[in-house]
Amino acid sequence: xxxxxxxxxxxxxxxxxxxxxxxxxxxxxxxxxxxxxxxxxxxxxxxxxxxxxxxxxxxxxxxxxxxxxxxxxxxxxxxxxxxxxxxxxxxxxxxxxxxxxxxxxxxxxxxxxxxxxxxxxxxxxxxxxxxxxxxxxxxxxxxx
Length: 144
Hints:
Layout: H1 3-6, H2 14-43, H3 48-71, H4 81-110, H5 114-137
Helix pairs in contact: 2-3, 2-5, 3-4, 4-5
């Protein structure tokens, strides 16, 4: 019997429960990300790419801790936060590359407002990050 079999809540699989929690945490990360991006670019006058790198870095850290202790906390087998954080950073770097690539492409080729481009990039990268972090960072195995 897998964790998935043991953890049914009202017919909702553990995968779906984790996904909902992950995206709630992700929504808080989006607020952190876009808030810092707006402050640094539109208020402080920083270049939008530099601002976005800083903003993404802050949101990665807050998301790691919320996911570690709320989303996946009771199912994490490896309790070494430093190892998990490094894995989370590596996977998040993939997501950051996707997000930045989409943002820069939309801004530079289509004259998109950088906040809209960032939002689209976040949406695309988040699904990939969820699946990879669930399995690699937090060690939650998929149902066979």
